[in-house]
């Protein structure tokens, strides 16, 4: 939350790399890197939309992906494969194992649905309305071993959005499977696509489900 709020404040300040520092020797790749470090909290909005739509589809019986041509399907698969290949190459280049990569994917969704979203709204309030936000700094010292702090549950409003996404997707899966059982064999085919997207969200939020 602290890092994301700082990024939002820079994004809406005069020092934003989108318009600051031209003619001062900042190279384009450096500028892109700085831009990436300040705009990422904005991705929380589309991320939450994407995590909500699968549940909506299962609850309403409609599908978010329309029927597309074979050519469009090939383009979609090519993009999907290129994203997967990019991830594999980044893992090989960075020496990151599949377990660490998956943890990073999970925390990308968890952070995007919680701290990044709150930081975006708090940053807008601070920049546009002058409302200051206070941080509760957690203690880095552990009383009972090195990782004791990790096992202490502390309630925060940041938990509400990811828990909500998890619950509505689980409910959507239950409702979708129940409808398919009641409606017969023909309804199972369209259901699998909807279940895939909902299970994608649930698997990414699995730490909350486990908790």
Automatic annotation (TrEMBL):
- Which gene is annotated as encoding this protein in its UniProt record? CESA2_5
From the Swiss-Prot or TrEMBL record, give the protein name: Cellulose synthase A catalytic subunit 2 [UDP-forming]
Species of origin reads Stylosanthes scabra
Cell compartment(s), UniProt: Endomembrane system
Task: Extract the GO molecular function terms from the UniProt entry.
Answer: cellulose synthase (UDP-forming) activity
One Pfam family from the record? Cellulose_synt
Q: Where are the transmembrane segments?
A: 38-59, 71-89, 109-131, 152-176, 188-209
EC number(s) stated in the UniProt entry for this protein: 2.4.1.12
What InterPro entries would the database entry show? Cellulose_synth
Task: State the UniProt keywords alphabetically.
Answer: Cell wall biogenesis/degradation, Glycosyltransferase, Membrane, Transferase, Transmembrane, Transmembrane helix
Q: What is its main location?
A: membrane
């Amino acid at each position: 939350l602290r890092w994301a709020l700082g990024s939002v404040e820079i994004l809406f300040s005069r020092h934003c790399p989108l318009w600051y520092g031209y003619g001062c020797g900042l190279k384009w790749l450096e500028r892109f890197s700085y831009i990436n470090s300040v705009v990422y909290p904005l991705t929380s909005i589309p991320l939450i939309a994407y995590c909500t739509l699968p549940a909506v589809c299962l609850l309403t019986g409609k599908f978010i992906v329309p029927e597309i041509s074979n050519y469009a399907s090939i383009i979609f698969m090519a993009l999907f494969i290129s994203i997967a290949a990019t991830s594999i190459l980044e893992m090989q280049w960075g020496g990151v194992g599949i377990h660490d990569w998956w943890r990073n994917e999970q925390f990308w969704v968890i952070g995007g649905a919680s701290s990044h979203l709150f930081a975006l709204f708090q940053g807008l309030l601070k920049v546009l309305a002058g409302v200051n936000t206070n941080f509760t700094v957690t203690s880095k010292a552990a009383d009972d071993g090195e990782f004791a702090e990790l096992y202490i549950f502390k309630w925060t409003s940041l938990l509400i959005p990811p828990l909500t996404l998890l619950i509505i997707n689980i409910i959507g899966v239950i409702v979708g499977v129940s409808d398919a059982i009641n409606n017969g064999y023909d309804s199972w085919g369209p259901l699998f696509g909807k279940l895939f997207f909902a299970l994608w969200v649930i698997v990414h939020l699995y730490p909350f489900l486990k908790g």
